[in-house]
Amino acid sequence: MNKRLEILNEFLYYVFDSLLIPLLRSNFYVTESSVHRYKLFYFRHDIWRYVAEPAMAELKVTMFEEVKLDHARRILENRRLGFSQVRLLPKQISMRPITNLRRRAAPIGNKKMLGLSINSILGPVLGDTPGKLYFVKLDVKAAFDTIPQDAVLKLMQDVTTQDRYKLLKHVEIKAGHVGGVHKPTRRWQAVAIREHDKTPFLDRVESQLAPTKRHTIFVDNVMQRSEDRRKLLSLMTTHIEQNLVKLGKKYYRQKNGIPQGSVLSSTLCNYFYADLELQHLSFLNGQDCMLSRLIDDFLLVTTDVAQGAKVRQGDAHGAFPGYGVSVSPLRRW
Which domain holds residue 321? Predict the structure, then answer.
């Protein structure tokens, strides 16, 4: 029986790997969409070229600048970072460029079960009506592509305050369910701390890791390394200012914004717009306002209509100089 199952698995692998996938790849460009995230779309290659080439041509003018082949090779030979690939993600009326930095390039040289009842929680809300609520939603247009490179690098110099950092690795084990079989999943995680921080691993798990993760086993791997702040900032500068993208046979450097597919992109964007909140939106810290943000999506809830109007008017008139912020009128309400 086991032999038959093995033969069946090999046959299915052959059908998918040698027949189905090559057939799809040779006839269609398969992609997800920025709007329909869990659906796949199949474009004939000629139709995809028709919709993608104008968008790619615009990117070469607005976001990238061409780098001569010899110069690109010299850059790649003298750094740890390779080059990235760009793909286009269809939106409703435009394309979103996604940078793939995961693809490897060929080398060039404690919570309780029981709590308050729902009525107990909602009682204060019903007992004291706060009045009319006003909502202002702002979605930054092409946030990753418009963040000024110099500004975000200067900000990160202020964020990194230690001369050296210690990177600690540990394993997180959770119960998993794969193919009808219960199998634990293991994930390697790394945490950066001050070099002279002597906090034991168990104390760090109790105070920092366990409160946000349930049903998880933490295993100290006793692996650590030390990193110099200047080297980290230099690596980040290279990553942002010298992001080489290969389009066809040519290399291009991203001259505006930060790589959207980078493992750092969401963190950099969070820090950058948190600084914007601190410098320009601190007037919203009153009792009558609540400003929330998920990366580049802002939502203001307030009982003061004047505050909401101030935020909208300030954005419309470019009141955030140095942040490259532009809000799409279709996404402002």
Answer: 118-148+257-327
Q: Determine, yes or no, domain membership for 301.
A: yes
Q: What angle do CA 214, 215, 217 make, to 5 degrees?
A: 110
Would you state the structure tokens that stand for residue 12, as one six-digit string? 């299915």
Q: How far is CA 8 from CA 11, 14, 96, in A?
A: 5, 10, 41
Distance of alpha carbon 131 from alpha carbon 287, whole angstroms: 13
**Phi, psi dihedral angles at 135 (to 5 degrees):** -120, 135
221 and 281: one domain?
A: no
Domain count for the chain, please give it: 2
The vertex-309 CA angle with 134 and 283, nearest 5°, equals 90
Exposure of 52 in the CB half-sphere (CA atoms within 13 A): 17
User: Distance between CA atoms of 62 and 115, rounded to whole angstroms?
Assistant: 54
Q: Which residue from 192, 141, 186, 162 is spatially nearest to 298, judged by alpha carbons?
A: 141
* Residue partners of 303: CB distance under 8 A and separation at least 6: 130, 131, 132, 133, 134, 288
Q: With the C-alpha atoms ordered 71, 228, 100, 269, is the resulting torsion angle positive or negative?
A: negative
- Whether the model clears a pTM of 0.85, i.e. scores above it, the answer is no
Number of helices (H), then strands (E), belonging to the chain: the values are 11, 15
β-pair type (164-174, 185-194): antiparallel
Distance, CA of 88 to CA of 95 (rounded, Å):
6
| Domain of residue 266, CATH code | 3.30.70
Blockwise average pLDDT, block size 10, the chain, 333 residues: 84 91 92 82 92 89 88 83 83 81 55 46 55 83 86 90 88 78 83 86 87 88 84 90 88 88 86 89 84 87 84 62 71 50
Shared domain check, 224 and 171: yes
Q: Both 168 and 133 in a single domain?
A: no
In whole angstroms, what separates CA 112 from the centre of its chain? 32
